[in-house]
Amino acid sequence: MRSNKIYTIMMVLMMCALHTRAQQLNTKMDSTVTTKGEVTIKGAQVKYSATTGKQPVWDDKGKIIAGLYFTYYERSGISDRAKRPLIISFNGGPGSASVWMHIAYTGPKILKIDDEGYPVQPYGIKDNAHSILDVADIVYVNPVNTGYSRAIDGMEDTEKSKTFFGVNADIKYLASWINTFVTRQNRWESPKYLIGESYGTPRVSGLSLELQNSHWMYLNGVILVSPTGLGIERGTAVDAANLLPYYAAAAWYHKKLPADLQSKDLTDMLTEVEEYTVNELIAIMAKGGFLSEAEKKNAAARISRYSGLSEKVILEHDLRIPKGFFWKELLRDEGFNIGRLDSRYLGIDKMEAGERPDYSAELTSWLHSFTPAINYYIKNHLKYETDLKYNMFGPVRPWDNSDNNTGDNLRQAMAQNPYLHVLVQAGYFDGGTDYFNSKYNMWQMDTSGKLRDRMSWKGYRSGHMMYLRSEDLATSNEHIREFIRESTPTEGQPAQYLRSIKK
């Protein structure tokens, strides 16, 4: 009898220990904590609540299969949420946490960095005087395996891949999660916006149509920050030619262009390069190996003039300069490479020889400043306790990229919804998702031109995360404010198309 009691006591203690450990890891799929905060934005005090934690993902049978970590900022003292916009924010990767825009762009707190975006110590956060929280509430969502978001224990890898890790699987489960969030927070009446950065741009483009067609949720706007190709076909000739304006921007920044081009302002110089790209270079590239020697040499001279590279290496690459080679070659004679996602950054390789840099100078710099800041902020300000690792980048491979029609998904959503507007934001020095291809996306998304009045494009003198540069942080947030104003219909204005009747 005594041994049974001892056994029972031991089992209870063991269960208590396991429960305590689970609490420490915070593996609960449906739990949140709310704190209060305030920030001064554009000279006015803004008080808010910050709710962070996990909300479940359910399968078709109502079983919880994952918990997504999110942080939701809601301005206090708002009497009518029906007129208050809600912005749903995603980063990219795929496999990246929603940390970058959260604590460096639109949120009420931003990490401590210098005015150009480089790390400083001591690490930490500070108020974001340019946050859009004055005009909209914001939720930052972390897909499965990013941040603290996780699938349930015991889920097979093949099932995880099928359910979460692919262009269309990602869109499907996130749309369902958004539906639940909007319902729980009682935000169905509010104007709604999606913002996505990098891989987050095909995500939100696809979500715009999925939310309409499967959840009957209609948006006012989609904001694409440093967009990818969105599944829009380019072809080898266009793909090669379209890189030249970015090459010119990076070369201009590093003062590698001829004096007459270098003396021009960046955007004036780029206008010339863009016109050459569209009107001449694409046709030249289309001829491929049937280009005459004279045409090839003339093209190499023009590409050299605009890229800062020698005619010799351009001819060696048959006019088609790989991005990796460009990042290695532009400053090779000075002993540096340049960053992929922000070509203002410099890196040092083991050898000057080689076809591409040893590492991404900009990404290592960003991880240096973001990682301590987000871990500190969540624990000390948002008061969320867990022993889980915060995945800046989480395991989501292999990722199914098949059937990526997200650009056309966005076009279809706009066609169906006269309220829906699109804003594109891009950095001139981004070599990963270059600015000129973000323009090309808009041109090709709707070849009829009937939607272009609802599309706008903004460029910034920085890279992939243009908001890391203090000057661009201010202007890019202001552009979002303007976009919200312009995409908000007047009260009673119907969502309808009107045809002109010729008499």
Automatic annotation (TrEMBL):
Question: What are the recorded GO MF terms, alphabetically?
Answer: serine-type carboxypeptidase activity
Q: Which InterPro entries match?
A: AB_hydrolase_fold (IPR029058), Peptidase_S10 (IPR001563)
According to its UniProt entry, one GO biological process term is:
proteolysis
Would you indicate the residue range of the signal peptide? 1-22
> What does the UniProt keyword field contain?
Carboxypeptidase, Hydrolase, Protease, Signal
UniProt xrefs under Pfam families? Peptidase_S10 (PF00450)
Does the record's keyword annotation contain Protease? yes
SUPFAM superfamilies given for it? Answer: alpha/beta-Hydrolases
Name recorded for this polypeptide: Carboxypeptidase
Kindly list the organism's lineage.
Bacteria, Pseudomonadati, Bacteroidota, Flavobacteriia, Flavobacteriales
